[in-house]
Design goal:
Mean pLDDT: 88
Strand order of the largest sheet: 7-6-1-8
Radius of gyration: 13 Å
Largest sheet: 4 strands, mixed
CATH topology: Hypothetical Protein Aq_1857, Chain: A
Strand content: 35-45%
Shape: globular
Number of helices: 2
Number of strands: 8
Number of domains: 1
Order of helices and strands: EHEEEEHEEE
CATH superfamily: HesB-like domain
Structural class: alpha/beta
Length: about 110
């Protein structure tokens, strides 16, 4: 899988990192119970045996579990961000009123 990001997603990553400069962040894609394969931005994430780094955006490593790597195979995955002031969850962008989303192969404004 190839990982890209929209300029909006990169901006949100930057905002999160400025607000929490002492923390190391990772994007995590997994087949978790709550939101399936939605991208989550976690601080100080502990890598599990199922996760491998599949890319990097905005200086943040992108980790995916085996299920997600098989699911997306050779596709291009684009991380985007949408304003969502009512979002709830554990991902680091939520308190800023954003939610990261995945787009499959939409490259029009994506940045590798």
């Amino acid at each position: 899988m190839r990982i890209e990001a929209t300029s909006r997603a990169l901006q949100v990553v930057g905002e999160v990192r400025v607000g929490r400069p002492a923390e190391a962040f990772s994007f995590v894609f997994g087949s978790g119970c709550c939101e399936g394969t939605a991208p989550h931005l976690f601080a100080d994430y502990t890598l599990t045996p199922e996760h491998e780094q599949v890319g990097e955006i905005g200086g943040v490593g992108v980790l995916a579990d085996a299920h997600v790597r098989r699911l997306y195979g050779a596709r291009t995955i684009v991380i985007d961000a949408e304003a969502d002031p009512l979002a709830d969850g554990f991902s680091a962008e939520i308190p800023l009123g954003w939610r990261f989303t995945l787009r499959i192969g939409e490259r029009s404004e994506a940045c590798p």
